[in-house]
Specification:
Length: 69
């Protein structure tokens, strides 16, 4: 459980676009507490009221970074 509390999560809001492809905008971060709850720190408030909390993966470590250019 101790290792779980050091995990960093990213907080996003999903914006629907006219082209049919959604845009994920990062609006903050979240951190697990020892009791299993989350502390969520927002830099912006989504106007749609919806948040997605996901594992944080830096861009240079994601699957697209592995693809040849």
């Amino acid at each position: 459980m101790e290792n779980d509390t050091k995990r960093v999560l990213a907080v996003y809001t999903v914006i629907a676009k006219n082209e049919g492809k959604d845009f994920w905008l990062r609006v903050g971060g979240a951190f697990p507490n020892r009791d299993g709850s989350l502390s969520v720190l927002l830099d912006a408030l989504p106007i749609n009221g919806k948040l997605q909390i996901r594992e944080y993966t830096p861009r240079d470590e994601g699957p697209e970074a592995q693809a040849p250019r």
